[in-house]
Amino acid sequence: MAAHLAQHVFQVDQRRAQRDEIFIATRIRPCSPPFGDPAPAYLLNVSRFGFMARTDLSPVDGSLISIELPELGQLVGRKIWSMEQNIGAEFLEALDPTVYFNLLAAIAAEQRLAGAA
C-alpha cells in the first residue's frame, strides 16, 4: 500500500501544468454507468487539464464525470485517482488558455461575493 501511495504522489508531481489552488462549492455528476444525481463537491484546485475536488461521490477510476464550473457549465472529465474524499480528474479536452483565464476570473469573483456575504 505504501509503495502504491508513493507512486501516486510521484505521478501527481509530474503534472503537465501548474494547478491553481481554489475553494468553491460545486457539483459533480457521474457520466458513466451507473448514472446518478449530482453530488455536492468542493473544487480544490484546477488547471487547463484537470482538477481535484472533495466529494462523497466515489466513481471508479477511469469513469466519466462532469463538474459544474462558473461561466463554463458542465465539463466532462475522466476520474484518474481518489484518496479518501478527494478525487482527481483529467478533462477530456484541455481548456483553451483564454477560456481558462476567464474561468479563474469568474472563480475569483465568486469567491469575493461569498466572502462579502
Quickly describe the structure.
By secondary structure, the protein is of the alpha+beta class.
Question: Main traits of this protein?
Answer:
117 residues, alpha+beta, Thrombin, subunit H, six-stranded antiparallel beta barrel, 41% strand
Fold and architecture overview:
- The protein has 117 residues and is α+β, with helices and mostly antiparallel strands.
- The chain has a single domain (18-116), classed as Thrombin, subunit H (Beta Barrel).
- The chain has two helices and six strands.
- It has helices spanning 2-13, 97-116, and strands at residues 20-30, 39-46, 50-55, 64-69, 73-83, 86-91.
- A six-stranded antiparallel barrel has the order 1-2-3-6-5-4.
- The radius of gyration is 14 Å and the shape is globular.
- The termini are far apart.
- The mean pLDDT is 87.
Question: Can you lay out the helices and strands and say which pair or pack?
Answer:
Layout: H1 2-13, E1 20-30, E2 39-46, E3 50-55, E4 64-69, E5 73-83, E6 86-91, H2 97-116
Protein name: PilZ domain-containing protein
Give the spatial strand order of the biggest sheet.
1-2-3-6-5-4
Structural class: alpha+beta
Average of per-residue pLDDT values? 87
Number of strands: 6
Q: Going by CATH, what is the homologous superfamily?
A: predicted glycosyltransferase like domains
Instruction: Give the termini distance in whole angstroms.
Output: 44 Å
Describe the largest sheet.
6 strands, antiparallel, barrel
